[in-house]
């Protein structure tokens, strides 16, 4: 493991990586030009058909293409539970794991960013879907708040280099038909092809675009493509993981993935398809909700309720004793409904104290939920809890030339995905990461 001091993860550090990357980019471009010249010579001499041309050109590089799709909130056991025939078919032709363990907390943004950086949330910066940063004071005497998608306006919220950069900085193209924060100009760069997020974007259009990108001539074709579908999460929240509506949502995305798989297989190049989810989904009950206002938290804390946790950020004038007093008061109030994370529990969750994680973290367990007055939304399903709870486990299914066939793996951490896909694409890791290929190694073909 390449754990490192989060203090090192500063913008100058990213800048240093960027400088080094531009140097290697120049070297890789020169290499790419040479290869192209050689391929052109082959074309002229042999006058091969277009399809043969594509396969001869791609013999060296095309087997490394990766399409990474995220199905938000798709629980590890939905394939059986909701009869996802296409995902079962792809798993049979490739690799599947019994579950994919998310990072803490089991929420969308920290996990999507971990999947594309190989870093724990405390290192990539997106510690939850919403959080405050005590190093960013606001005019109102509170702190600036991150919320989902905010890095598009201010990419300094993210302190890491996403996978699309890894491809771009090594002379390849990358494309994203959505991935959380993939339209943030991190270190001044974006994927070559991208769409700004809209939940209204047509699902079929996303599949068509992904296939079209991979049908481009080699010089324009992206090595890495991502796609993202929110449907199973939205319906899972509204109706619960076991409902008929969730079954219908699974059927809809399963059909799309089956279509994508067949169309990718029909291309003249070989493509690895990797389908993951960020977290699972569990039943919650309104009768178990904990009203945050009933806890009477003093106003010298800025309070952030994310459902499974409440984070308290002490305002600047607050003393250490006041924070400790409040912890003791809340512990007495908890009566088994929630816990206040100790430093040992925070270590275990990699949620150690920093400017973003909060001075106090209260955590509840399903079917309970923290709720704020004015929040009228009734949810039957939720996530964001302790990441190792079985229901929080997500999906991993992959098939293609780099994966073994018919291999079932035990659960593994989603931090393994970044280094594994980098290896498949032949990309060097340009910065230290937290993830390491362990369990997933058993699913990869040996070179
Ligand atoms: Zn969700």
Automatic annotation (TrEMBL):
Alphabetized Pfam families for the sequence: Phosphodiest (PF01663)
Keyword vocabulary terms for this entry: Signal
Signal peptide residues on this chain, from the entry's feature table: 1-32
GO molecular function: hydrolase activity
Coiled coil start-end: none
Keyword Membrane: no
Name used for this protein in its record: Type I phosphodiesterase/nucleotide pyrophosphatase protein
Organism: Alteromonas naphthalenivorans
């Amino acid at each position: 493991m390449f754990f490192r001091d989060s203090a090192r993860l500063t913008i100058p550090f990213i800048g240093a990586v960027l400088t080094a990357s531009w140097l290697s980019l120049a070297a890789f471009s020169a290499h790419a030009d040479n290869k192209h010249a050689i391929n052109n010579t082959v074309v002229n001499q042999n006058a091969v058909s277009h399809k043969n041309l594509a396969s001869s050109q791609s013999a060296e590089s095309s087997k490394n293409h990766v399409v990474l799709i995220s199905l938000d909130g798709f629980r590890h056991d939905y394939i059986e539970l909701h009869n996802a025939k296409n995902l079962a078919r792809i798993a049979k032709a490739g690799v599947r794991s019994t579950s994919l363990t998310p990072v803490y907390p089991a929420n969308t943004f920290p996990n999507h960013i971990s999947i594309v950086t190989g870093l724990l949330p405390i290192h990539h910066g997106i510690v939850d879907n919403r959080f405050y940063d005590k190093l960013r004071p606001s005019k109102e005497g509170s702190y600036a708040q991150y919320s989902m998608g905010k890095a598009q306006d201010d990419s300094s919220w993210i302190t890491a280099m996403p996978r699309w950069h890894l491809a771009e900085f090594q002379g390849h193209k990358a494309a994203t038909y959505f991935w959380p924060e993939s339209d943030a100009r991190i270190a001044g760069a974006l994927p070559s092809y991208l769409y700004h997020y809209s939940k209204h974007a047509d699902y079929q259009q996303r599949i068509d675009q992904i296939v079209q990108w991979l049908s481009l001539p080699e010089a324009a074709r992206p090595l890495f493509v991502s796609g993202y579908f929110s449907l199973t999460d939205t319906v899972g929240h509204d109706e619960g993981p076991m409902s008929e509506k969730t079954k219908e949502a699974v059927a809809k995305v399963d059909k799309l993935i089956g279509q994508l798989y067949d169309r990718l297989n029909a291309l003249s190049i070989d493509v690895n398809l990797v389908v993951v989810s960020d977290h699972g989904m569990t039943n919650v009950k309104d009768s178990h909700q904990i009203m945050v206002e009933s806890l009477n938290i003093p106003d010298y804390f800025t309070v952030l309720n994310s459902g499974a946790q409440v984070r308290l950020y002490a305002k600047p004038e607050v003393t250490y004793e006041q924070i400790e007093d409040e912890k003791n008061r809340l512990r007495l109030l908890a009566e088994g409904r929630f816990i206040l994370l100790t430093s040992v529990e925070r270590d275990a969750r990699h949620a150690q104290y920093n400017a973003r994680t909060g001075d106090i973290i209260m955590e509840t367990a399903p079917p309970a939920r923290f709720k704020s007055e004015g929040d009228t939304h009734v949810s039957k399903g939720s996530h964001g809890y302790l990441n190792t709870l079985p229901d929080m486990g997500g999906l991993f299914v992959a098939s293609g030339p780099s994966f073994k066939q018919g291999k079932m793996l035990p659960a593994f951490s989603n931090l393994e995905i970044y280094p594994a896909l980098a290896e498949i694409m032949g990309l060097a890791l340009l910065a230290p990461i937290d993830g390491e290929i362990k369990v997933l190694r058993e699913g990869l073909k040996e070179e």
